[in-house]
Amino acid sequence: MILPLQMLYFEDLSVGMTETLRKTIESSDVVGFAEVTGDRNPIHLSEHFAAQTPFGTRIAHGLYTASLISAVLGTRLPGPGAVYISQTLNFQAPVKIGDTVEVKVTVAELMPERRRARLECTCSVDGEVVLHGEAWVKVPSKEGGGRPMPRV
C-alpha cells in the first residue's frame, strides 16, 4: 500500500476536511508487523492457537490497525511534515486476516497560534467501528518556511 503524497500546510486545513484509506489485511502484513515490532503473540501468528480464543481465528495487531491512521496523517491529511503530538486509541472489535479496514481521518479543530490540528480517527470493517480515537499533530505552515520536499 503506497499512498500518493498530498502536501498540505496548516493554512490549507479547515474543520471538516476528511481523507480515507481502505486496506485489506493480509497475513503477510501481520507477520511483517510481528517481525518489525517483536510482538509474536500467537493470537496473531498461529491459526491453531487463535482457534482456541474467543475470536476463533488470527487477528491483526491492534497497533497495526492504528498504524494505518499514521499512514493517512503522514501522506494525505495533513501530509508530509506533520508531526504527531498525541494519539488516543479505543479498540472496539478485532480485525481479522482478510478484513478490509476503512480508515477515516477528519479535521475536528485547528489551533492557529500553535499550528496544531486535532483529528478524529476511525477505523471500520464492514461499517462496524473497530477503532476510534483522536490525534493531535503539528502542521508546517507556509509562513514558517514550509517543509522539506519528500524523497521518492
TrEMBL record:
Molecular function GO terms recorded: (3R)-hydroxyacyl-[acyl-carrier-protein] dehydratase activity; fatty acid synthase activity
Keywords: Lyase
SUPFAM superfamilies for this protein: Thioesterase/thiol ester dehydrase-isomerase (SSF54637)
Superkingdom in the source lineage: Bacteria
Domain MaoC-like positions: 21-112
Presence of the UniProt keyword Coiled coil in the record: no
InterPro entries: Fatty_acid_synthase, HotDog_dom_sf, MaoC-like_dom, UPF0336/Enoyl-CoA_hydratase
GO BP annotations, alphabetical order: fatty acid biosynthetic process
Cellular component, GO annotation: fatty acid synthase complex
Protein name (database record): Acyl dehydratase
Species whose genome carries this gene: Pseudolabrys taiwanensis
Taxonomic lineage from the root: Bacteria, Pseudomonadati, Pseudomonadota, Alphaproteobacteria, Hyphomicrobiales
